[in-house]
Amino acid sequence: MRQFAMVLALLVASSTLRAQNRTYAPEASSSNVHVLSHVPLGWKFTIADIEIEQELSRPYVYVQRDFGPAGFEIISIKDPAHASVIYSWRIERPELHTGRGGSDGHYFKYQGRYYYVQTFHFAQDGPDTDVGAIVFDVTGLPDTSKVHEVGRIRAADMPGGFHTLFPYKHSDGRVLVFTTPRGPFSMIYDMGKFLAGDPNQGLIGKVPGMDVNGKPNGYHDYYVAYDAAARQDKFYGAGGTYLTVYDVSRPEEPRLLTSVTGAAGVSMSHTFQATPDGRYGVSQTEYEPSPIRIWDLKPGLDGTAKTISRPIGAWQGSWNLGSHNHEIRWPYVFVGSFEDGLQIFNMMDPTNPYTVGFYNTRSGATFSGVDLRSGLKAGDPARELPPNVTGNIYNGAWGVDVRNADGLIVVSDFKTGFWAFKMDGFDGWNGHQWGMPNISSAQDWDNGPDGAGAPKPGKVS
Fold this sequence. Notes:
The strands form ten sheets. The chain has a four-stranded antiparallel beta sheet, with no helix packed on it. It has helices spanning 2-17, 191-195, 298-302; strands at residues 33-39, 47-52, 60-65, 71-76, 84-90, 99-101, 105-110, 113-119, 121-122, 131-137, 148-154, 165-169, 175-179, 185-190, 203-208, 210-212, 215-217, 221-227, 232-239, 242-247, 255-260, 269-274, 280-285, 292-296, 313-315, 326-329, 332-336, 342-346, 354-359, 370-371, 383-384, 397-403, 408-413, 417-423. Helix content is 6%, strand content 40%. 52% of the residues are buried. The N and C termini lie far apart (44 Å). Mean pLDDT is 87; it is low at 1-24 and 457-461.
């Protein structure tokens, strides 16, 4: 709690001190984090999130393209020391597709074939405003001629597309995709039904958001994981001023288990993940400066608290900056920490997390992030703020992912492109080695979530 109190004190002071720190430069790297590959990807500020396939026999990474011609790159890491782009895809007629583009993508496996699904959100002054996601068959890699589109998920009643999505191997065997539409909920798609041509596109349910000031709100990001002890599939959602935990064991009928509400400083909930045992939640709020907060979810899940409103710990790379996406591989948390680059901290003691490694992927001056006032016109990438204009932290490391088989870490940077890293002593991850369920964002597409084979309450074994 001492470290958490210190972080909060620094945040209070930041409003008066921040202007004096515009020349602040994070350290380059820690001695235990090593670059394996760096691949520039062209237009700055058009580089979005990142996804790595988990099987060593499929050495492919997907990088999404945002704030410009929407699409993605596939990068081969067959030799991690010599990564290279092997395939690029862009939306047809990019000059007509205005708006953000494609911000988030993930792969999944279904009936022996591999698919990549990416979100898209286009403005209403162009075509395909109803397209939320596009699904590609990537089974044939490394033969890129066999990569092909298999279908588009559309939401005609909610134009503007999807911002994020999360594919999940449900304990009942289904492959589900949870999406963020332009509505106060997360929409759930059964990909088996979608691929079979279901007229409803595989839509099977919705996870409700929460009411804020009398208005229903939705989500920005989320994480879905199996809780082996409770024998439940759980949805962890980040939306606005709140975080939610839902039981989605029956995705057609989500059931609220607990929430984080009324917490000081939580005004822009962005990312929310849970530890492998489901006990602790780790969340990020997207503003400058802001720490990553750690929550003990047990009182809410046990029913001893109606809601949770105080974190038990906090971490921040640099006191006056902020972070973006993160991945938990207990006890480590890997953070795409904007202008702090890749950051890695240990949360073995959730009340006292501490940094164990870092590498600054950013280039240029600090506080010179993407200028959203550029208008995001078709074919024109978002630009930097002029050097003499006070900017923001939307620069540097956007996304991070980890390959569990060998501990390879990949990062996407707003400007500098793709990076691959290794951290000394981290040569792979399996939860059982830490006395935890083997649960993370990485899915076991063949066998389902760890511990899901046990009979659920109310079922006869």
